Amino acid sequence: MMATGARCHNSAPARGASNLHSMTRHLVNTQPYNAETALAELTAHETPRNAHYVRSNFATPQLSLEEYELSVGGAVLDAQSFSLDALRALPAHEVLITMECAGNDRLGMQPLPDGEPWASGAVSSARWRGARLREVLARVGVSSDVIEVLAEGADYGPREDALHQSDVRFARAMPLAAANDPDTLVAYEMNGAPIPTMHGAPVRLIVPGWYGMANVKWLQRVSLLTTPFTGYFQSQRYVYDAGGTNTPVTRMRVKSLITSPAPDCVISGAQLEVRGWAWSGFGAITKVEVAVGGGERWESAELETAASPHAWTPWVFRCPMPVAGRLVLRSRASDETGATQPDTAEWNRLGYGNNAVRAVTLTIAA
Length: 366
What we know:
This protein has helices at about 20-25, 85-90, 135-140, 175-180, 230-235; strands spanning about 25-30, 35, 70-75, 80-85, 90-100, 125-130, 150-155, 170-175, 185-190, 195, 205, 220-225, 240, 245-250, 255-260, 265, 270-280, 285-290, 300, 300-305, 315-320, 325-335, 360-365. It is mainly β and about 375 residues long. It has 2 domains: about 35-250, Alpha-Beta Complex (Sulfite Oxidase, Chain A, domain 2); about 255-365, Immunoglobulin-like, CATH 2.60.40.650. Strand 9 and strand 10 form a beta hairpin. The two termini are about 20 Å apart.
């Protein structure tokens, strides 16, 4: 827990946001609606539904629950459509995952890239329940030469840089192996209730370990492909573009977040306690280190137990309270592949995958 007597200065609610959203989210854009989770809501293993960050590329579609159908076709033996009731009739599976927007911390990149001005709140964790995608695919029969699975949402709209298209539908592809992962879901529930409209109702694709763009909302169509998908959101957006070949964004890079003390807090007491989360789409977190003040003196934090193999790992660091004055805290995580957060972000034109170490400044009271 934070030291007794801590005083924090929270940012003012975004203009035009509702009272509920201003307490739980920070508005990024109204049209389309995009919002970050407030830091105060990132202290539990599971983020409340009304606080989970929201990323939309187009206007929010309104789909009828009664008329909803998921079309599954392409290189299959028996193309079919599944109603919501048909999906619910399949064996249900639930998974708690941490999901991060690929553009999270874009504001920390220099020079500032194009794109939504995300700070550090485009990350959350939630429990998703639904049918395993591989169960759905088993019902239609997958051809032996399939290499990718394409997911298409109901959301669409104009893009000035889209080649030869007036409107673009949101669509992303993944390797067949990722689609067959036992925790990849065609989800219809979020945190024990039907998925809210802004999070993709009635059905959303859930791909653990991948950045948010792979978790296609308002899922309408799944297609089995024998050649690589090259659509707009696979080749022009959600790609790492550093001036050469565009590489599609996939799994979340190793990263950590300090949740307590909050930035700009004033704290006092005999002991400094720092808490936060660490996550990676490439494997388990093996180490978190904390630097108190400047320099390169990094000390190991204590790792606690993650609530799920796909969820963030909590950690805590304790040390004697530093002397009064301004204090800078930093954290960095490592995963089982040996990857560690870098000091500087790997810059790319669209500002994706920023997992650089962040500094949090607070004040130690005299």
